[in-house]
Please model this.
Amino acid sequence: MEEPKTKNGSEAGESRPGNFIRAIIDEDLKAGKNDGRVVTRFPPEPNGYLHIGHAKSICLNFGLARDYRGKCHLRFDDTNPCKEEVEYEESIQNDVRWLGFDWGENFFHASDYFPQLYEYALDLIRQGKAYVCSLSAEQMRDYRGTLREPGRESPYRDRSVEENLDLFQRMKAGEFPDGTHVLRARIDMASPNLNLRDPVIYRIRHEEHHRTGDQWVIYPMYDYTHCISDALERITHSICTLEFEDHRPLYDWVLDQLDVPCHPQQIEFARLNINYTVLSKRRLIELVTGGFVSGWDDPRMPTLSGIRRRGYTPVSIRNFCEKVGVAKRDSCVDMGLLEFCIREDLEQAAPRAMGVLRPLKLVIENYPEDQVEEFEAPCHPNDPAMGTRTIPFCRELFIERDDFMEDPPKKFFRLAPGREVRLRYAYIIKCTEVIRGAHGEIVELRCVYDPETRGSAPADGRKVKGIIHWVSARHAVAAEVRLYDRLFVKEDPCADKSVDYKTHLNPHSLEVLTGCLVEPSLAKAVPENRYQFERLGYFCADRWDCKPGRLVFNRTVTLKDTWAKIDKKD
Ligand code: ATP
Ligand code: MG
Model:
C-alpha cells in the first residue's frame, strides 16, 4: 500500500481546492479507516451517452483515486434488462478515456453479481427480512402511504420463510408472469422515509439482458444492487448525487443485514446543472430520437461526444469541473464558465489562421496582375515554438463582408469608401470604389495599396486604426463552417412544467456557411485540429465530415463572451 499524499491529496506544489469530500477522506485516513485504502467508482447506467454532468462525477471519482493513489472502478449499472445497449457501453468507455481517465483492470458490471445478489436475497428471506409480495403495482402504491400518512402492511408480509423461499425460487425459475410477485425488504411501513417502507428489491421481467441473455427472469432493483456491488468491490467512498440522500438509510440497512466484505460510506454531492441546456438522459434521448438534433454527438448537445465534436478539449472540461467545485447544495452554473474554460485552453494551444466566413471580393488596382508575395506569419503570437506559416498575397483578395460598410457609424474603424485599413500581416489599403451587381448589391471593392507599409507604419505618421483579415482569391481553400448557438433560448428550459421544454429550443442554434474561404495552410487540417481564426473565434475540424478535399469546421466558441454583452443590454 502506497503512502497517501499530502492533505487533500494534492501533489506538492499543486494546489487543488479542498472540498468536503476530501475532508472526509482525510479524516478517514487519519483514523486509519479502510486500511488506508481509497477506492471510488463511477457507475453509469448504459442507457444513453454521457453528458457534462457525468463529467463532474468522473472528474471527482477518478480525481480522488488519482490524488490519493487509490483506485476508481468503472461499473456499468446494468440491472434494467430492456434499456441497456452495447453501443452505450462503448461510447461511455470512449468518453471516460477521452476525458483522460483510466480504470485499468477495474472494469465491472452489476450483472456480474446477479448470482451473489440472488444468494444474498435468499439470506434476507431466511432471516425473515424479505418476503414475496403479491399485491399488484397499483395496490402496492395504495398501501405505501404518503409523506404525511404511514403506509399499511401488505397482507403477504407474514408469509413463512419456507413459503417465501419456495415462491422466490419459483420466480427465478420463470413460473410466474411479469408483475405477479415481487420480493420486498421487510423494514418498516410506518417509516417517515418512504424508501424504507418495504422497498421492492426484485421483480419479474421476462426480458433478454444484453449480457446475461435469458439466464434470468428476475432482476434486482437499483437500491439493492448498488450497495452490494459497492461492498463486493470493496469501495471505500461511494459518491453519488443529492437525490440519493434519502436512499442512504436503505443503502446502510441492506449492508447491515448481510455478511458483506465491507460497508462503504455513501456521500452525496450536488449534481451539475448548466443554463441554456438540459442534462438528463431521458430528455437528451428525446432530442436525438425526435430528430431535434443530428445525433448524440451533435455539437450543440451537452453530451461529451457532442462537446468533443464541437471542439472542446479534455483539459478544458476537467478545469471546468474543478472550477465548479463540489458542493452540498444544488445550483446552476453559467454556460459562460464552460466557454471561459475552453477559451483559456485554446488561447495558448490553438494555432492562428485566417478564414473568411462571408467573403467579399476586393481588387487592389495598383498591384501587378500576376505578382504573388508570401508573408511569413507566426502560428501563435506568444509561442515561437509553434512555428510560422506562409500566407500568399496577390491582387485579388477576399475580406469579410462585415468588415466593409458604405456608410459607417463613428466607431467603425474597418473599411469604408475613401478609408484606409491594414490587411493583417500585409499592407495598408484604401477603398476607392464600390462595384454593384444587377440588384444594387455590393459585389466587389476596388482599392489601392501603399507599397511602403508592408509590416511597418506609414512613414508620414498618418494613423490607421483598423486591421482586418483576408485571404488570397487565387490561393484560398473552400470550407464549410458551422456556427452554433445555445440549444435553448431559455435559461432553464424545464422550469415551467406546464409547457414542453422543447418549445424553448433555439431555432437559430445552427447556421451552416458553405462559401467560406480559408488560408492555404489549412488545407492539411485533419479531424479535430483546432485553430483560432483570427478575430472570429476558435474552430475545430469536424471529427467526421472533414476529409481530404472537403474542409469542414465547427465554431467551438467565439473569441469574446458575446452573450454576456447581450444579457447586459436586455
Ligand atoms: P440522468 O439524470 O441524466 O439520467 P443518471 O444519474 O440517471 O443521469 P447515471 O448513468 O445513473 O445517470 O449516472 C452515473 C453517475 O453520474 C451517477 O453517480 C450520477 O450520480 C452521476 N451524475 C449523473 N448526472 C450528474 C450531474 N448532472 N452532475 C453530477 N453527477 C451526475
Ligand atoms: Mg441513474
Observations:
- The longest strand covers residues 428-436.
- The chain has 13 helices and 27 strands.
